[in-house]
Amino acid sequence: MSRLWSFHDEEEIRKIFMKNLNIACYDVIKKFAECASGKTFSTLWKCHSEKQSMNECIRLNALPENYDRARDIYMERIQMNRILKEKKQNSEIYQEREEKIYSK
Question: Count of domains in the chain?
Fold first, then answer.
């Protein structure tokens, strides 16, 4: 099913995608960050292999199917929020009816 997404929706999907990407590449990102810590320009040559490893991990995990998975996760969240909202509304309606019945 094709769906047009709002800017907000795409931003939320991108956040989920990036979070999953950071989880998948956590170890190599951490190694690069540790190497780059306290360095500025020298990071270019002193942390070259760590940067290559990090970029390779990101390249291998930044796949369209992983973005689709992030979109599916977002859709599940929307549906779950809708269900919870409906349950809350139904509960409030039920409570109002009970209050009317028992207050008489």
Answer: 1
